[in-house]
Amino acid sequence: MALLEDQIAVITGAGSGIGRETATTFADHGAAVVVADIDVEGGEATVETITDAGGEATFVETDVSDPDDAKAMIETAVDEYGGLDILYNNAAIEGPVAKLEEYDNDAFEQVIDVNLKGVWYGMKYGIEAMLADGGGSIISASSIGGEVAVPQYSGYGAAKAAVSHLTKYAALEYAEDGIRANAVAPGIVRTEMIERTIEEHPEMEEQFQNTEPMPGLADPEEIANAVVFLASDLSSRVTGTTLPVEGGYLAQ
Ligand SMILES: NC(=O)c1ccc[n+]([C@@H]2O[C@H](COP(=O)([O-])OP(=O)(O)OC[C@H]3O[C@@H](n4cnc5c(N)ncnc54)[C@H](O)[C@@H]3O)[C@@H](O)[C@H]2O)c1
């Protein structure tokens, strides 16, 4: 069943991992997708995968932490496809793995710039376009680290907690305008982000394997399907919430 027929979507960080998987899944469900990423090669590869399969997609080089870029990515959806129905603020960086007193100041700022300010800019310009187009659905990427503390990820976790809280603001401020805002909180997902961390800290692989009560790591597809639910009318009465997709981790 096509759940996103004729919908227009923007996905940030769609050049890799969960963002790419969600972009192809959205397209399979009938949406036209603006693929926004700082990584040109990755973004263009996602567009190629979608168009080769007969879907519609456009790449726009975007640094989500730059408000002008964030505005331009939303304008791409309006100019190319005629509006905006779905925004998935997915782009993020993991930052260092370090305890607070060893956490680099510049790295902390960068994590906040991309993971928090980037989501805020996306919401700001995305909401503007959705208000002009009869509403829409915003989904933002949080994490288990935004719900509970995961030691050595203070910058990442603080930004993700703020993303979940920001989601409540967007939900309440626009509840009467047909705009819903929700977040998704994955556990440990098999993507380049996790592979990079394992490469730098091989001792963490076993810890990742055993983090979630359900065995092993999640596949990006399992997160993408939850995002499709939040993007589509299947969740028409769901707003202001963070949906955990973490094999039971937060039930402990
Ligand atoms: N992988 C996991 O285990 C996991 C767990 C919880 C939450 N998440 C969240 O899911 C989302 C996707 O993560 P992933 O694992 O697919 O990561 P990933 O590293 O595979 O992909 C992230 C994408 O974001 C892009 N990006 C980075 N900085 C950017 C910027 N400034 N502007 C635009 N694009 C930028 C990268 O180029 C990349 O294509 C992130 O928000 C992440 O925090 C991931």
TrEMBL record:
Q: Which InterPro entries match?
A: NAD(P)-bd_dom_sf, SDR_fam
Q: Which GO terms describe its molecular function?
A: oxidoreductase activity
Q: Which UniProt keywords apply?
A: Oxidoreductase
- Pfam families according to UniProt: adh_short_C2
Sorted alphabetically, which SUPFAM superfamilies does this protein's record hold?
NAD(P)-binding Rossmann-fold domains
Highest taxon listed in the record's lineage: Archaea
Q: Tell me the protein family, please.
A: Belongs to the short-chain dehydrogenases/reductases (SDR) family.
Q: What name goes with this protein?
A: Short chain dehydrogenase
Organism annotation: Natronolimnobius baerhuensis
